[in-house]
């Protein structure tokens, strides 16, 4: 999908991109081979050829950060097949207050089949978070552009997020799926353990409070809840990518 993308070129939007696809310009190589492209002046064609050559060089170097800058965030879903092998799935729990008044209690991090849980007062440090983010080519969250990442950056001043960010909440809205993470999971038949089905954000706050009061079992439940939220982002991302590709991608790549 990435090499079929043209909306990162100056002056090309979704409608023009689709006209290119429908006119047989399916990818960067095809565009650059053509001596003329209908609706694009020779001077602009040369400029686009140069921009596509630069994009290809960054792709050849597996430079995901370049595409984080040149693609609008709503189009970061297009990067999943190319950079999904080094995707970081992230979900946080908090004390329930605003970022200026509260704390992050748990950060769930899932990549390449491995779950890591950072816990406030123990393993949760800015260094650990930054190391995880720096190893990623693609960040995947649910509502993370609005909640998780701003919250983390308020609590950990200077935390850098330079990779593309595929926010599944807004991707779901684009394909007609409403509601929170668990309701969308049910609609797409993505499973989690039955004893976690009734745990929500408010209960997560209570579990942390119980743990702070000395109930160790509450922390175990909170970790399991967060891990379910975090792991389930992977099948959700795959499902949403396929639906987005059908709606917004070229026909031959669907």
Q: Describe it for me?
A:
This protein is of the alpha/beta class and 254 residues long. It has two domains: 60 residues, DNA polymerase, domain 1, CATH 1.10.150; 161 residues, Nucleotidyltransferase, domain 5, CATH 3.30.420. The chain is built from twelve helices and five strands. The protein has a five-stranded mixed beta sheet, sandwiched between helices. Helix 7 links the parallel strand 4 and strand 5. Helix 8 runs parallel beside helix 12 and helix 10 packs antiparallel against helix 11. It is elongated. The N and C termini lie close together (9 Å).
Briefly summarize what is shown:
The chain has 254 residues and is of the alpha/beta class. 48% of the residues lie in helices and 11% in strands.
- Average residue pLDDT: 96
Oligomer: single chain
Number of domains: 2
End-to-end CA span: 9 Å
CATH class of the largest domain: Alpha Beta
At CATH level 3, the topology of the largest domain is Nucleotidyltransferase, domain 5
- Assigned CATH architecture of the largest domain: 2-Layer Sandwich
Find the structural class using helix and strand composition. Answer: alpha/beta
State the fourth-level CATH superfamily of the largest domain. Ribonuclease H-like superfamily/Ribonuclease H
User: Could you say which overall geometry the principal axes of the C-alpha atoms support?
Assistant: elongated
What portion of residues is helical? 40-55%
**Main beta sheet: strand number and arrangement?**
5 strands, mixed
- Give me the strand/helix succession: HHHHHEEEHEHEHHHHH
Low-confidence stretches: none
Number of helices, where a helix is a run of at least 4 consecutive DSSP H or I residues: 12
Strand order within the widest beta sheet: 3-2-1-4-5
> Roughly what fraction of the amino acids lie in strands?
5-15%
Total count of strands:
5
Radius of gyration: 21 Å
